[in-house]
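Record pair follows.
FIRST:
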Amino acid sequence: MILKLLILILLLFLSGGSCFAIDTPSAEELYFEANRAFKEDRYQEAIKGYFQLIDHGYVNGHLYYNLGNAYFRAGQLGQAVLNYKRAQYLIPRDADLNFNLRYALDQTQDAISEDQNFLKQAFFWLDDLTFRELMWGFAALNILFWSILVLRLFVRPEWTYYVFIVLLIFWLVGGASLGVKWLQLSTDQRAVILAEEVDVLAGPDSNDTVLFKLHEGTTIHRERIEDGWSLIRLSKNKRGWIKSSAIEQVLKK
């Protein structure tokens, strides 16, 4: 019974709700005006309104989701994919977001799957959790873990031993998950092609050989930037140079 209660508390800490809180009347008015513009098919006005909110620091998964929807309706597939992916950092379990992102990716011309490295496969649950949720979950685990440890210094009923072992396992997995998530975010160099079509060249020069072409909405990995050019990678053996202006990084740093 106690073990079930501890697991329930852990799940409550890990379950992250996301709401869009607006502090000032002017921001609230801007948000509803942008939503109204979207409903009335005035997509460019909606995009402008959502960007104004983002520029004022109102960063929220649902805001990026709405922005992605507006871009998709406006026919700007690259920007739609970009903002859907940004929304995924903040509301990764949102069913509507994930459906719309999959639908948008189905419209892209380049059939390219994202890399699945060892850490991503081993810690597969991290895609469904935000960094903030992991921090709160690990904080809760720390409180429970050290509380049981202190309790066992004074009394040692048999059940505390089993609870301690279970919490120790969760504590180790939780700490490792938090560390891996931080590593993933700090090294995330994914970017989205925004140009309708772009040549991928053998070097950072317009006169270099064209290796292949990429199209709007394709997700790539940017390895480095050099004089307005970006070295991008699709897989271990497929890379090349494109104009930096043709792409935008998913995670803003």
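SECOND:
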Amino acid sequence: MILLNPLNDYFEDINILASAVEAIIFTSGESISLERLYEIFDISSKNKNKGKEEIDKKKKEMILKAIEFIKGEFNEGGRHGIYLSVNNDNYSFKTKPEYYGIISEFLKVKPQKFTKPQLETLSIIAYKQPIIKSEVDTIRGVDSGSIIKFLLEKNLIKVAGRKDIIGKPLIYKTTDHFLEVFSLKDLGDLPSASEIEDVIEKRESINKRAEEDAEGGEGGGLLFKD
């Protein structure tokens, strides 16, 4: 086994660099930013030395290439139970959703569940952000204060300033943790309105058939219930 100490050694081979980056992300235990990776490899974002600046630029390109190498290994292949999660230049290893059942059994962890009002409120904030409480209340038709407090406690939404109107109410946006919980790369991965409508139409169609079967004496009932 060859021990690599000088930082420059890692940049002599993209495979070695990718392995080093992989080890750092794994060891971090949580998301690590691209800037932090640059710092670890002594790459300065503010370098006045032109020669060093060119070297750092090439090193940054190699680290990005190493990350793509890791993504190709863990995200595109089917041999691993984990994948590299990328969220706004923050990286972490996560277990693939299809193995959550067996992992939950191992850890005896129950999946996080939300009530319909909680999901409704979270969806409104996700799609309409930045948004204030009164706007959420207007859309839902009821007060959402307790649910917004719950979502804040769960770190699914955050305060993103105050709106410049009378009273200066708080503005809410979703967090990076929200993206992680729902396995979204970014907000662009949110399903479109038409996709949501398709799901609702299919659900209503299934419920209607189930009701007809029940009325016809064939047993059964609502497969989906609001």
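COMMENT: The CA atoms of residues 166 and 203 lie 42 Å apart.
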